[in-house]
Amino acid sequence: MSKKEYIQDKSEALEHKVNLLMGFGFLIIAILIISVNLICRFIGGSKARLYEYTDGVVIKAKEHKTYPFGGYGRPAYDYEIKVEYVPEGENRAYVFWDYSYAYENIDVGETLRIYYMKDDPDEAYAARKDWLTSRYLPAENRYNIPLAISTVLIIIGIYFFIDNHKSRKKKR
């Protein structure tokens, strides 16, 4: 075996190891993100134990456009909602008001679960049922963004494994 062939074999072996390490690295990071995301979902859902709940109806859903850099660049959108709800044992309706980018897909007339403090019904938050854990989570949180990032990381990790497999197959 010549020196050139020896160096080529060593570099190919190193390339295979790097591909495997990169693939495992991306998968491990994705699994960590998914794990933290699930823990946050369960912690967010456990907050509800301190509150009573009722259903409320969205009476206002409005989009606000702002230009964050003094009128330059792309506009940013915020969404305002007002939800009317009647706590159990109360004679009057209360209004929950909030302003967040996470209320983008909420429309007037939609029913949201409202969690409120029994002693102070004005202290409340809107919740939506989570598709992953089936718990009611605060509506202003966006729990799906980390899952999307994890999906991309998983695809990158799988790419490294496929690339490693193809290059090993080609070598044989």
Largest sheet: 6 strands, antiparallel
Residue share in helices? 40-55%
Oligomer: single chain
The number of distinct β-strands equals 6
Distance linking N and C termini: 17 Å
Would you identify the regions where 5 or more consecutive residues have pLDDT less than 50? none
- Rg, Å, rounded: 25 Å
Helices, by number, come to 2
User: What is the strand arrangement across the widest sheet?
Assistant: 3-2-1-4-5-6
Look at the helices and sheets and give the structural class: alpha+beta
Mean pLDDT: 89
Order of helices and strands: HEEEEEEH
Question: Outline, from the CA principal axes?
Answer: elongated
Strand content: 25-35%
Describe the structure.
The protein has about 170 residues and is α+β, with helices and mostly antiparallel strands. Helix content is about 40%, strand content about 25%. It contains two helices and six strands; from the N terminus they run αββββββα. It has helices at about 5-45, 145-170; strands at about 50-65, 75-85, 95-100, 110-115, 125-130, 135-140. The chain has a six-stranded antiparallel beta sheet. β5 and β6 form a beta hairpin. α1 (about 5-45) packs antiparallel against α2 (about 145-170). The longest helix is centred in the first third of the chain and has 44 residues, at about 5-45. The chain is elongated and about 90 Å long. The two termini are about 15 Å apart. The mean pLDDT is about 90.
